Amino acid sequence: MNKSSDEIMSAALLKQFTEKRLPRAFELEKKVLANKTLSESDLMFLEMVLNDAQYILRFVDKHPEYQEMASKAIKLYSDISKKALENENKNKNRK
Fold first, then answer.
1. Helix %, strand %, coil % of the chain (to 5)
2. CA atoms of 37 and 65, how far apart (whole Å)
3. Along the chain (95 residues), what's the average pLDDT of each consecutive run of 10 residues?
4. Where are the domains of the chain?
5. Taking Cα atoms as reference points, which of 64, 92, 50 lies closest to residue 6?
């Protein structure tokens, strides 16, 4: 039995998210919660996630079963970004 392109895309997105994106997000969360600033590669990762978000949101519209997971991921990335900005501003004020 052949898998549909949607099934293949779903599996690929889920694998990428669980094996790469989520672990990296948790690393960044831990870093910012420790009041550290993000590196250039950390910022590039967040930019890549933002660029991919448009595609992922369109995908989730077609597959509501992923909506809760996508919402939680968006909140996590938002929290990381807010805390990173806060840390960066604190760091600038110290100089």
1. 85, 0, 15
2. 35
3. 74 88 96 96 94 84 90 94 95 78
4. 37-95
5. 64
